[in-house]
Amino acid sequence: MKKLSIIIPMYNSSAFIEKAVFSILQSSLEKEFYDILIIDDGSTDNSLNIVQKISLEFNNVKVVIQENGGAGKARNTGIKYANSEYIWFFDSDDTAATNLGVIPAQLKKYKNIDIFSYHYNWVKGNDKIIGIGNSQPLVKCDKVFSGREAILQGYKPGSVCGLIIRTDFLRENALCFRTDITQEDSEFTYRMFALASRVLFSSHLIYNYLLYNSQRNSPHGIRLQEKYYLDAIEVAKSFKELALSFQNSDYILYMKINDYADSVLFGIVWSVFKWRIKGRCAVVRYSILQKMKEYGFYPLGQYKKRRKNILRGLLNIELFLK
Fold this sequence. Notes:
Layout: E1 2-10, H1 17-25, E2 34-41, H2 47-57, E3 61-66, H3 71-81, E4 84-89, E5 95-96, H4 102-109, E6 115-123, E7 129-133, E8 144-145, H5 147-153, E9 163-166, H6 167-172, H7 184-195, E10 199-210, H8 219-244, H9 251-278, H10 282-294, H11 306-315
Parallel strand pairs: 1-2, 1-4, 2-3, 6-10
Antiparallel strand pairs: 4-9, 5-10, 6-7, 6-9, 8-10
Helix pairs in contact: 5-7, 7-8, 8-9, 8-10, 9-10
């Protein structure tokens, strides 16, 4: 059994998959420490040929083929096939940072950790670093505590690619990604942290996360934007359900998660309001409001912060959003 399985979901990634894989293979990680498990999600380009050739050259690179089902399904397949103590989810268009040697050092130093959380670089297409992601400024670094404590300190869910997760922890809690939404990372990580007994937020950086230019003004971009916000409502609904699961056993955690879900919903409606001011996306605005009403999320409820409650009064006037 390897110490670490690096799971890469892949769909039509011929332009960058080789760079992603070799950023790991050429790193300071010893080959005996890890394997790379590439889940081909029904690619129709040359991606599969590229990774199969790499797997013939490197015996710690394995390829699994499945019908197209999205990144969530591919990651779930990776959890199923992983034969390692820890899992690291890695996107096919991203690259590893240069100091991966910190991973085996920390896995050796800290025992029985459910989740290691690392920083990553935000990079543009020319590999220019423009910021740091997953920094979690409200959470203390290099100290072990529970996922509950992390959430109460102010942990904000985000990309799963900054996390190294104990495989048995995932399987024992039947944790898997949703396959019906585009923001499966955030939905998954918040549920996961709520169940974790031991987590470590490291001050080290191990990953380069590629950012793309927005296509919001194109028709295709508008459809994607509608999907994004409808999925954000689904994520908020999941957070509300997660909060309710703690209502009787841990009221403080229940309130914290519920407050975060409410902040997500506030952000969605605030975006709709800004589009209305600019006269944009009328059809998208309508579909978002309908979904919010369907789940009982609109009109917005009360907030703790005075400023949000003042804005809430404005945002609950539906005429200002249509």
